[in-house]
Amino acid sequence: MEKLIIAAAICGAEVTKEHNPAVPYTKEEIVREAKSAYDAGASVIHLHVRQDDGTPTQSKDRFQEIVDAIYKVCPDVIIQPSTGGAVGMSDLERLQSTEIVPTPEFATLDCGTLNFGGDEIFINTDNTIKNFAKLMKERGIKPELEVFDKGMIDIALKIDKKGLLEHPLHFDFVLGVQMTATIRDLVFMVGSIPPGCTWTAAGIGRAEFELAAAAIIMGGHVRVGFEDNLYIEKGVLAKSNGELVEKVVKLAKLLGREIANPTEAREILSLAKK
Ligand code: KMH
Ligand code: ZN
Q1: For 101, which DSSP code?
Q2: Which of 93, 108, 121, 227 to mutate to test the pocket of ligand 1 (most atoms within 8 A of CB)?
Q3: pLDDT of amino acid 272
Q4: Whose CA is nearest to atom 2 of ligand 1?
Q5: Which ligand is nearest to the Cα of residue 85, counting in written order?
Q6: Ligand 1 atom 7: the closest Cα is on which residue?
Q7: Helices then strands, each counted (H, E), the chain
Q8: Candidates 80, 82, 98, 149: which one to mutate for ligand 1, based on the most atoms within 8 Å of Cβ?
């Protein structure tokens, strides 16, 4: 089986230090978390950034200084900036993370609108998705297609039909926000994408490691990290993103799957480092 790519969603935009004191806000804290995940075996860092007080931001300058600082300690890691940002941000605000230098090789593309808890709605209209896809194609950025339910796979495939996506497509199944996160759900999602695509599973909350184990067995890839889950086991907060990644590495070892380094991950994902 293909080697396993582990992506670490180290920061997110919604979780806070009140949820887990290890959630990073400052440049130093975000770099510390990226390095802990990389040292543990993550080849991809899914990146959100914050102001020092924890407020999520898509500021180009903030992304630039933090990406530069991560490359200093993890020179070959794949950095995947978020273009989702936080609920309520405008499209232009969100796209700033793609304007850094060098242009990112990878970035998220959220493929639909969803309920985000309480009164929060994460808005991605058809035009937003098309515009983001077009711009990423022009800039040579590979999109990771963030799909939170099956309808979003269909939206992504509709956009693909318009010629706005390069192949092979890569999907991230984020399960446990809008859709439940059972093995049955994951099998359904995997069966709903065309042959030849690659995919990652990101289980939210307690589903994180169940879906990780299933993805390891099914030949997919795995995302873990504070953005998705704050606990290493029931009732025990994770001390770092590295600790969450280590647990996936242990699972992969038990299940006989080798871990991809960043060079191997680039090959699997058809990325070209700039
Ligand atoms: N924070 C969410 C509103 C992404 O990174 O592209 C959006 C999100 C998805 O996290
Ligand atoms: Zn994200």
Answers
A1: S
A2: 108
A3: 75
A4: 86
A5: 1
A6: 84
A7: 9, 14
A8: 82
Q: Which domains occur in the chain, in start order?
A: 6-269 (3.20.20.70)
Minimum-distance ligand 1 atom for the alpha carbon of 14: 1
- Cα-to-centroid distance, 109 and ligand 2 (Å): 10
> What pLDDT digit, counting tens, does each position of 82-103 carry?
999 999 999 999 999 999 999 9
Six-digit token string for 137: 């194609």
The predicted-structure confidence for 242-257, as pLDDT tens digits, reads as follows: 999 999 999 999 999 9
Question: What is the predicted pLDDT for the residue at 94?
Answer: 98
Positive or negative: CA dihedral 106, 30, 235, 217: positive
Q: Which long-range contacts (CB under 8 A, 24 or more apart) does 123-126 make?
A: 126/155
Angle at CA of residue 79, ends 66 and 71, nearest 5°: 50
